[in-house]
Structures are given as structure tokens and as C-alpha cells.
């Protein structure tokens, strides 16, 4: 069974791999044999993930890019190709959140969040997938969505809208890239206390989340690794594309 999840010989690009969740997945890619490019805006955090991978015997390198500035993504893609020759796996894990109430929302904030969460993912995927097609390189694209993508969450209007868009582009691109042997799927995480959502986790909100989560706890970043490795593997998930895989402690199965 271990052969199903062996990523040896693969190159993975982890966009947002400097984040808590993206970093956990990037480390898992390396543990399963992939060579990993850590792409992020904050190079200090990217280097921390890279160092952790190297200390565990893996191969990784950090590349600076901001998905809201596509010129930096283009530059990173060229640098990654020079380093590794190409890539087989692309993880899209950038994220930005805000609790701004709807009537207080300004166009600038809407644009900023959409630039990272949706526009950035669309055009980052365009950059990396185009090169995969040109190289006739089959593989896997994994988008990080959210439980707010299917039923919007209170207090995070723009974030919810952006993640609903992620689900739509995941399904569209699954069909678009299928003839090229590129699978496109999304992971829908439940509540993981990552940087971007700590600011809205008041005591009342935590109680509300727990009452809606059958497992009655937050997720740990490492609990996303199994889903990511499954979707990255062209053996384990060779006939899986256009799907949204929930890792949410049962949150999506609950109403009241």
C-alpha cells in the first residue's frame, strides 16, 4: 500500500507553503519523496519550512512570490524550472481573511482579499499549468478551499465568496485539464486555528464552531496531510478529479 503514496521523483510546488497549513502539507510532500519548492511572500517563514524539510532529510528550496503580484509568480516559476526542470504537483494554499461587516466593507478590502484568494489562485494556476501542458507533464493541482465555500460563514463575507469561487474553478479546470492528464481537486478544511482566522475566534465563536462540529475540536495542520498526499499521488487518486474533499471533523454534515 505504501507504493500508492510514494511521491519519489516528483516535484511539488507549494504556493503558500510558508503558511501553517500549506507548510504542513509541503513537509508531507517531502516526507513522501517529493522535491518541494516553497513559494511565499514571507521568505523568513518560507525558509523555516525549507529548513525543517532539509533537517528531516528532504529536498526543498524557498522562492519568493506574492500571488497578488503575478510578475513575482512568473519569476518564481522560472526559478523553480531552472532548479528542478519542471513540476508535477501544484498546491494552491495562499489565504487572506477579514471579519469586516458587510456594510463596512470597502472595495479596496474586497479587492485585496480576492486578489489573494481567488484571482491569485486563478492566474498562478494558469502560469504553472501552462508549463505542465507544454512539457507534457501529467500531475495534480490541489486547491485549498474552506467550509465557508459551500455554506457561507458569518463574519467572513469576502472570504466565503472567494472560497466559493475556488470550488467553481476547481471543477471547471478539472474538465479543462483532463485531456492533458492533469487532475484538479480541492480540500475543504474545517476549522484549523491558522494565522488568518485567529482574529475572529472569540470565545462565543469558538463555542458556536464546536457546537457545529461533531468531533468537538479544532483540526491539527498535520491532519490535512493524508488528504493532500492522496490527491497528489497519481497512483492513489488516478481517477479523481473535480472533487472537493472535506477534512472538517464533520462540520459539513451538521445543521442544528
Mean pLDDT: 94
With helices defined by DSSP (H or I, 4 residues minimum), what is the helix count? 8
Measured as a percent range, the helix fraction is 40-55%
Poorly predicted parts: none
The span between the termini is 39 Å
For this structure, the quaternary state is single chain
The CATH superfamily is identified as: NAD(P)-binding Rossmann-like Domain
- For the record, the CATH architecture stands as 3-Layer(aba) Sandwich
Strand tally is 7
Largest sheet: 7 strands, parallel
Helix/strand-derived class? Answer: alpha/beta
Spatial strand order of the main sheet: 3-2-1-4-5-6-7
Name the beta content range: 15-25%
What is the CATH domain class? Answer: Alpha Beta
Q: What's the CATH topology name?
A: Rossmann fold
**Domain tally:** 1
How would you describe the overall organization of this protein?
The protein has helices at residues 20-31, 43-55, 70-84, 107-134, 157-177, 195-198, 203-211, 225-232; strands at 11-15, 35-40, 59-64, 89-92, 139-144, 182-189, 244-247. It contains eight helices and seven strands. It has a seven-stranded parallel β-sheet with strand order 3-2-1-4-5-6-7, with helices on both faces. The chain is 43% helix and 15% strand. The model has no long low-confidence stretch (mean pLDDT 94). It has 256 residues and is of the alpha/beta class. The protein has a single domain (2-246), classed as Rossmann fold, CATH 3.40.50.720.
Amino acid at each position: 500500500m505504501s507504493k500508492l503514496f510514494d511521491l519519489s521523483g516528483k516535484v511539488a510546488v507549494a504556493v503558500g507553503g510558508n503558511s501553517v497549513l500549506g507548510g504542513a502539507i509541503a513537509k508531507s510532500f517531502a516526507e513522501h519523496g517529493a522535491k518541494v519548492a516553497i513559494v511565499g511572500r514571507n521568505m523568513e517563514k518560507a525558509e523555516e519550512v525549507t529548513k525543517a524539510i532539509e533537517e528531516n532529510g528532504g529536498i526543498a528550496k524557498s522562492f519568493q512570490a506574492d500571488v497578488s503580484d503575478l510578475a513575482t509568480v512568473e519569476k518564481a516559476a522560472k526559478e523553480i524550472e531552472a532548479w528542478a526542470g519542471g513540476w508535477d504537483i501544484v498546491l494552491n494554499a495562499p489565504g487572506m481573511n477579514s471579519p469586516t461587516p458587510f456594510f463596512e466593507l470597502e472595495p479596496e478590502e474586497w479587492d485585496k482579499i480576492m486578489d489573494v484568494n481567488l484571482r491569485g489562485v486563478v492566474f498562478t494556476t494558469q502560469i504553472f499549468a501552462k508549463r505542465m501542458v507544454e512539457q507534457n507533464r501529467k500531475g495534480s493541482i490541489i486547491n485549498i478551499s474552506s467550509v465557508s465555500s459551500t455554506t457561507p460563514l458569518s463574519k467572513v463575507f469576502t472570504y466565503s465568496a472567494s472560497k466559493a469561487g475556488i470550488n467553481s474553478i476547481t471543477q471547471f479546470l478539472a474538465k479543462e485539464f483532463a485531456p492533458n492528464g492533469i487532475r484538479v481537486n480541492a480540500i475543504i478544511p474545517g476549522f484549523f486555528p491558522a494565522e488568518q482566522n485567529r482574529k475572529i475566534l472569540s470565545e462565543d465563536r469558538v463555542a458556536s464552531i464546536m457546537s457545529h462540529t461533531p468531533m468537538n475540536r479544532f483540526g491539527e495542520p498535520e491532519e490535512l496531510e493524508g488528504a493532500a498526499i492522496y490527491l497528489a499521488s497519481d497512483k492513489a487518486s488516478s481517477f479523481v478529479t473535480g472533487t472537493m474533499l472535506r477534512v472538517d471533523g464533520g462540520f459539513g454534515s451538521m445543521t442544528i
